[in-house]
Amino acid sequence: MRSAIWRLSRALAEPARSLTSLKPIPSVASSHRAGLRFSSTVSAADLTFGQPVHETHPHLLAPGELTPGISAQEYADRRTRLAAKLPDKAIAIVAASDIVFRSGSVFYEFHQDPDFFYLTGFNEPEAVAVIGKDATGTDHTLHLFVREKDASAELWDGARSGTQAARDVFNADEVGDISQLKQTLPDLVGEASHVYTDITQPDTNQSALQRFLYGQSKKTTEFAELVGSSKVVRLRPTMNDLRVVKSTAEIDLMRTAGKASGRAHTDAMRQAWTREKQLDAFLRYRFVANGCDTLAFEPVVAGGKNGLGIHYIRNDDVLQDDEFVLVDGGGKYGGYIADITRTWPVNGNFSDAQSDLYQAVLNVQRSLISMCRGSANTTLDKLHNIAQTQLADQLRQLGFDMSGKNIEQLFPHHLSHYIGMDVHDTTGYSRRAVLAEGHCITIEPGIYVPDDERWPKHFRNMAIRIEDSVAIQEDSPYVLTTEAVKEIVDIEALRA
């Protein structure tokens, strides 16, 4: 199976051909974008699509929604806002994610490219969107290239939406079969004043070896050669500006994910666990059973000194009765995530040392959450600096030597990151940006005490992190994950 990006690179290497005018296709589902077609020749409930639509999955999507909680109109408005940021005659090109195979024909769970999903709501691989201003300069045009319906392929891989649904459900102005991309795309690129895309940038999540083996460098070189270096502009900064401020609908989805995820954490605290793997399995099940679609990321379930590894995900050790377990995990709903970390005693009761260190971290976390207001005129970096100061003060009172840069040894990670469609959302967006209403972030102070004689003996090998997902409002924080208890008295009461 050829990827959409592979097809794109091959198409751009072809000589330019004229763009064939695509004929209107009768609508099979009500279009939700103002002014578009509302005729229907076939009931959508009798058809198959590559993802849920209201007519086939009314238990998941309300009328007018393209994905759970997000209307087709909101997707159209996002594209219009993107087009408004582009120069005249410029286009933006965004490709869907590829299917990633773990071995042979066995694939990993599909995760759509977040920029592509944000702009289209289309959740299938092998697709390309081309977006630009319309003729009036006040709206957008959407060219959407997708896999055509194919009974033989769908027998093995499941239903596809096809080009007809791309027009009538996903509201594309022009549609095309992704296999024909090379016949249509060069004209769009040739007529554009600028091409905003990230396809020319190698995937920073891939190693140099992966880029060599899978031809990433060749793809990006072909694209750059066709459009010219002066024509290509990175799309990521523009997309970050759009995505970093969440709409009411997006925040509602994150709150739904936060409720389900928070309840899973609290349910886990109610039970005694002897193995990290068992607790891991329970959380995976409860996130989905409570209403999430899938995991937001691979959970951390770290007993005792394993918690000193910030991203420990082996989750294969024995939980000791007199130690902490640190759990970092969350679910994803409607494309939006929750991020929660809780730390609690394996036996359900805090020792004096555990209580002292835990309360120190909790005091700081509560203080920092109170600052998550638009009116506070703060930034992620400012909050991090405050966290370092406050944690150092708390630790000093517990007998720690906090001279020099010792706080960086005990608190080695940043306090916060942006969240949304990804757990580390809008990668590259500045931590020095002033937080405003609609920004969604984590607040996660932590203390990690190595087995080193520099630190008080009774705290060594303890790792504590307390994390919540928070939406910035003008005058108050909106904590999205309150169902996960964190007060000492509440944690101990769960097994009382």
Automatic annotation (TrEMBL):
Catalysed transformations (reactions): Release of any N-terminal amino acid, including proline, that is linked to proline, even from a dipeptide or tripeptide
Keywords recorded for this protein, A-Z: Aminopeptidase, Hydrolase, Manganese, Metal-binding, Metalloprotease, Protease
SMART domains assigned to the protein according to its UniProt record, in alphabetical order: AMP_N (SM01011)
One of the GO BP terms on file: protein stabilization
GO molecular function: manganese ion binding; metalloaminopeptidase activity
SUPFAM superfamilies: Creatinase/aminopeptidase (SSF55920), Creatinase/prolidase N-terminal domain (SSF53092)
InterPro entries, alphabetized: Aminopep_P_N (IPR007865), Creatin/AminoP/Spt16_N (IPR029149), Creatinase/aminopeptidase-like (IPR036005), Pept_M24 (IPR000994), X-Pro_dipept-like (IPR052433)
Cofactor: Mn(2+)
Enzyme Commission designation: 3.4.11.9
Pfam families xref list: AMP_N, Peptidase_M24
One GO term describing the cellular component: nucleus
Superkingdom to which the source organism belongs: Eukaryota
Residue stretches making up the Aminopeptidase P N-terminal domain: 70-206
Similarity comment: family membership: Belongs to the peptidase M24B family.
Function: Catalyzes the removal of a penultimate prolyl residue from the N-termini of peptides.
Name of the protein described by the UniProt record: Xaa-Pro aminopeptidase
